[in-house]
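Why do we bother with holo predictions? Because pocket geometry can differ from the apo form. Keep that in mind while you read this record for magnesium ion.
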Amino acid sequence: MVKLAAKCILAGDATVGKSALAQMFRSDGAHFQKNYTLTTGVDLLVKHLAVPDTNDSVELFIFDSAGKELFSEVLEKLWEHPNLLCLVFDVTNEQSFSNCAKWLERVRAQLQGSSLPGVLVGNKTDLTGRRVVEASRAQEWAGSHGLEYFETSAKEMENFEAPFRCLAKLFHQLYRERLELFHSLV
Amino acid sequence: MRVIDLCEASEGTEVILATSSDEKYPPENIIDGNSATFWATTGMFPQEFIICFHRHVKIEKLTLQCYFVRSVRIDKSNAKEPVDFERWVERDLVHTEGQLQTEEFMFRDGNATHLRFVIKSAFDHFVSVHRVSIEGLNVSSLT
Ligand SMILES: Nc1nc2c(ncn2[C@@H]2O[C@H](COP(=O)(O)OP(=O)(O)OP(=O)(O)O)[C@@H](O)[C@H]2O)c(=O)[nH]1
Ligand SMILES: [Mg+2]
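The structure, written out:
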């Protein structure tokens, strides 16, 4: 039985719903913030997740980060030594999708050699009539960057836990792989 | 007085605290004299462990075997309890793929009852500490 701890960067353009997703996840679906409150710098949320089919668990330290460019300098400092990445865009906003490349690059710049397991999340799927980013396109981009893809609606409480569960699983897998590596050294 | 291995179990040395604990890879593995067994960290850095000698010792040489450690600091204390640590040495390590890091430290001012190892940063998400061996002298019992 082991309890892992991971620093998870939650990033993406302003108003895509990062804080809404994080709040939903933390409150187990009890709390959806309807009115927009912009995040300044980083809000930290901590949530404990069991890893299925094991006795192990992962404590996720979610760094819900500001999407507004204004705060980017603060972010670089707070993002040091990330373990996981949750990259979010709004399926009704083309630019929020194309900016994912920029966000990915900025977070990966924080790494010194090591890999960064991550997921891409297309949020606001409840706004069906206004969708401009098709799932297949997002899926393809995610795949080509080594990310798993999820679609969510924080508003309708759709699938909001899945990306975080996936991240916990990826981190746990990485730990297992490292243990094997450590065993192989001597 | 004769230089001995201060970590040998018969000498009563213990790891009394570690910030990570996977029961399959416990911190005792650090001082069991075996490089094949290890303590694994399970999360974010810094990570720490404290070695307690249960006596006053004078350390002459310390060898740390580990993997993926980027920067480590060792603090020491001469108190009866694990308190009043002072900074002792700090070092940046190099990483060689697939090869255990073996780092040697020599000391003249080696009087201690406790050592605290702080792994400040790493080359990866997790590190392993395979062995700490410490050569020195038994000085006196705690009173
Ligand atoms: N329709 C719909 N609206 C959503 C959804 N998720 C969030 N919103 C709304 O979108 C607005 C912005 O959400 P936030 O979570 O604050 O956005 P953010 O990404 O944290 O923005 P910054 O903190 O500025 O980076 C809020 O008014 C939310 O209520 C969703 O799934 N569907
Ligand atoms: Mg926000």
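Residues 4-141 of chain B form a domain with the Jelly Rolls fold (CATH 2.60.120.260).
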